[in-house]
Amino acid sequence: MECVNKWMLMIDAISRMHMCVTDLREIVFVIQSQSNSYHVRQAERRREDLLQQTQSLTQPPPLVLFLHSLTDNEGDWSILPLLPYFSLSFGKNSSWLVFLEEETKVKVTKLLQILRKFDRRKEWFLGKPLHDEESTIIHHYAFAENPSIFKYPDFSAAWALSFPLVDRLANKVKDDPLKSDFTIDLKHEVALYIWENGQGPRLTGVPELCTESEASQAAQHCATTLSNLSPLCGDPVKKEEIFVAVKTCKKFHNERVPVVKKTWERDASLLEYYSDHADPTIPTIDLGVPNTERGHCGKTFAIMKRYVSEAVPKTSWLLVVDDDTLISLPRLQMLLSCYDPSEPVCLGERYGYGLGQGGYSYITGGGGMVFSRTAVMKLLASGCKCYSDDAPDDMVLGMCFNALGLPVTHSPLFHQARPEDYSREFLNHQVPISFHKHWNIDPIAVFNRWLKDGLTSEIPQKFMKSTKEEL
After folding, report:
1. Which positions fall inside the Fringe-like glycosyltransferase domain (predicted)?
2. Where in the sequence of the chain do the CATH 3.90.550.50 domains occur?
3. Which end of the chain is more exposed for a tag (fewer CB within 10 A), N or C?
């Protein structure tokens, strides 16, 4: 009898091992890529690195997909609409769907070891957990009574879904099409969709999914790391190549404009303030568009027309910001070194409207909207225009670019809200470019803490040190 029991235990152990065994053929990697040429090159480097690592293994290589090339629907960066495609195409032969960003470096053998700990027949949602310390507008004030209770993944660390979960969610998407109007913070919204008001799985934290720099000592135990903290692809763009347009109005001349002048204006070579009132002491320029409370479409289109006219110096880049935007122009100069101004570039923090129903993406205005001259010229030549002066300028621009077939390009370094509105762990591995809103903060102190530094290659290291000490 004892031998029988031992035999049964051995069979059970072997069976449980078989449930968890994962080889590379069972993993589908999805790089959350973008169609801009710089981002395509970044994604190709990441795929090449993954495949090179697998050459030393005896297993066949995994499948590595680029998110931006899977369909013609530009809004599929929101991932959820693609779940039926993933289920139908890979559900029979795969166990894991692993998402990573272009800067996420993966140690393939270590990731395999981690995935083998989880029963692939069950529903799993794996990642590095983030949480809100206070309810925040970017998450629609979700879990207001206890924001820290809900965890969502840091996409920079990679995140994974088991295919039993993918298959069930795919059926949910088909039976109940996505109806949310706005996509603001995708990582939070994906986690909410999977959670299903408590009926679905919560995020399981995996300590080996990390956002440490790959060169740091702390990264030794990690299966994922970050290969780059602050993009720099050569010499920073000269400040004379960036024309800065600040949108303001008379009632904020004495409240918000002085903050700009005390913080980041000094780093601009070419900057103009546009208002509903010409004030020579600032100075501001009245473009003939009255101030509107709801949106500033008329003003923004007037700015773009002025930008391509002979009224201002010809530059490669246009930056449009609100008067309560805090921004680091030296860091923007570094970032723009990665982009080709001869391409139609529309860059900033990407939001989405009606993406599950054939909607469009747009760059949210408060964090700063960056346009190449080529993009502005194509936009104005198309005849696309505001349906009213007080229409939301960022959303109308998104509709225009979508109609032209020109994608908007996302950078997580631009922020529509204040530092307080983002997870500390999320900001801890960033070198941010902008924040927005002066509400309930000291904007000058926020600028000095988060955005003030010199234009040097030491920015990432200096920032990481000071941020970690303060946090």
Report:
1. 92-173, 236-441
2. 22-226, 242-470
3. N
